[in-house]
# Entry
Amino acid sequence: MLDLKPLWEIQVLDGQRKALEIKLKEGQISKDLKTLKVEIEQGRADFNKLKEKYNSIKKDLKIKEMDATAAVEQVDSLGHKIYSGSITNIKEINTSNIKLDSLKSVVSRTEDEILNIMEKLDSMRGLLEKKSKELNEKADEFRKLHGTYLANQQKVKSVLAQVPLAKQKILDKLDIDLWNKYQEMKRIFNDPLAKVDKGICLGCRMGIPFNHLRLLKQGEEMVYCSNCGRLLFWER
Ligand SMILES: [Zn+2]
# Structure
């Protein structure tokens, strides 16, 4: 009696090994991780750029505040001079009044500018906080995904490590001529053995002639698919 089952088991095992090796090389999680890493790096760069701009505007604000203070001091001192009566010359009083008005408008303009800058800084601070929160969340997600990824890789590796022994166990009870024949066919087919289901070769999905099916079910000799040439395996 020809027993192709062990050979079939080896082919299935090889297929599983190949799938696991591919999974090990490039898992979906690994792709997600890469995307996330790029997003985090981009987000950090954006955040730093915004923070730099924020600091530079803050510096401008300090300067404006100093300008305003100086202008207010000038207004106070000139006003004091005018109203204390220390200036008596009418022409000088007029000139001083004009100067005082101009200084007052500088103060008011600078104060308006300060308010505008403060509003701008407020909205930037809000944006910075939002971005920082998003970055932290993404970093958490990355850590979680990375942990899962490593655990999965470990699982795949341990399953893979068991394959050679399982294969050897089957090989030990396999007929050597059959094995040699299989190896020979391996040069042509990735999967030399094809299961037969409902009279169809699952290697090429073509129907098998009745007399071939009969031979297959008798199980005395090797039967090949007349279409694709694979060795046919019918599971009892
Ligand atoms: Zn076929």
About this structure: The two ends are 12 Å apart (CA to CA). The longest strand covers residues 193-197. The pocket of zinc ion is lined by residues 194, 201, 203-204, 206, 225, 227-228, 230 (CB under 6 Å). The chain has two domains: 27-152, 178-233.
